[in-house]
Amino acid sequence: MKNLLIIGAGGVSRVATVKCAMNSDTFSKITLASRTKSKCDEIAAFIKERLGVQIETAQIDADDSDAVIELIKKTGAQILLNVALPYQDLSLMDACIKARIHYIDTANYEHPDLAKFEYKEQWARNEKFKEAEILGLLGSGFDPGVTNVFCAYAQQNLFDEIHYIDILDCNAGDHGYAFATNFNPEINLREVSAKGRYWENGKWIETEPMEIKMEWDYPEIGVKDSYLLYHEELESLVKNIKGLKRIRFFMTFGQSYLTHMKCLENVGMLGIKPVMHQGREIIPIEFLKTLLPDPASLGPRTKGYTNIGCVIRGIKDGKDKQIYIYNVCNHEECYKETGAQAVSYTTGVPAMIGTKLIAKGIWQGKGVFNMEEFDAKPFMDELNSQGLPWKIIEMTPNLGE
Ligand code: NDP
């Protein structure tokens, strides 16, 4: 049994906290802390009513490492789950190093003033994590997260060599708004409006935003336009999947979403640099976030399914082989169970599973790790029992042709 501190109280946190409370044989005590304590209290009340489990709540500024260390001491936490924003990753990792407790997150570090994400600064803390004899698990969401585990499972159990991977992320949910983002709008729009990038034959190849499009037939959903994006799991998978020739990431977008985004971009609303407005500085994308629906409010309105998975081609026993491994999730079912829609659900459940495997000592190590560096099997088993069952389809090999 481990004492857990969860930081952040948005949609992902809500699901992760509910799921941790549902696994209270693993977590002896749960404290939920965020910038706005009332959001923690609302989640705690939901959990108390639904599950009869009492969790503690606290106010915290996660950018302030010293305050986080104080909170860790006060709560006696042994593990910290970071489901705040990517901007807080480094200050929270540093707090964990000083307090010598395990660290888990779901998204890699981004500097607030640079629309760019990479693992460099988090990987650079590897030695400090080793010295403190603690484990840092990076990217325990769905993508990154489950997609890394799918690839690791394929490498460890289904293939002798893996040559091609396409990660395919489809959200076919309908929330009824003309334009809204399914998770933090600032993080989401920064990701989607950036240049695309994929890796082939040892080199990164850059594309214009949304330059490469394909149609893909998603099981249980149907054919959707899917656009090549750069996504953070590509950086670690290129390092950890041996023999790889190409890896790409695709996400579905409807035409209305793209038209809105292009328009907002053209008028400067996606800008991350301050502009003067009536004598005071504002950051356009932050102002836009204020105008857009709170992703947490989409829960009760969203209908339909998500499908996220990996198409993997390689060699097994001397033969060419291709599989499609994926999960399908229903927005309304997720809302019924946790009060949040499927994008939060598909992230929050794996955040809990990564935390659980560390709490139980099933995933062990000293240093900073990506998901694919561990035995995938226990994680895959937990996905099936915690609400994200997966399927594998054998396909006629054609990826890379
Ligand atoms: P939200 O914006 O809904 O929630 C973020 C929460 O973090 C809010 O409660 C917010 O505070 C809190 N927070 C922000 N800054 C601070 C701070 N300085 N100190 C304390 N708390 C702070 O985001 P989501 O729940 O949608 O996303 C959470 C994380 O999950 C993000 O890092 C996102 O990138 C990641 N993600 C990962 C995915 C994956 O598949 N790997 C997919 C989707 C999201 P406040 O309480 O004031 O609102």
From TrEMBL:
Superkingdom in the source lineage? Bacteria
What InterPro entries does the database record attribute to this sequence? NAD(P)-bd_dom_sf, Sacchrp_dh-like_C, Sacchrp_dh_NADP-bd
Q: Which residue intervals define the domain Saccharopine dehydrogenase NADP binding in the entry?
A: 5-134
Q: Record's SUPFAM superfamilies?
A: NAD(P)-binding Rossmann-fold domains
* Domain Saccharopine dehydrogenase-like C-terminal span(s) in chain numbering: 141-388
Q: Where is the signal peptide?
A: none
Instruction: Write the protein's name.
Output: Saccharopine dehydrogenase
Organism for this UniProt entry: Campylobacter estrildidarum
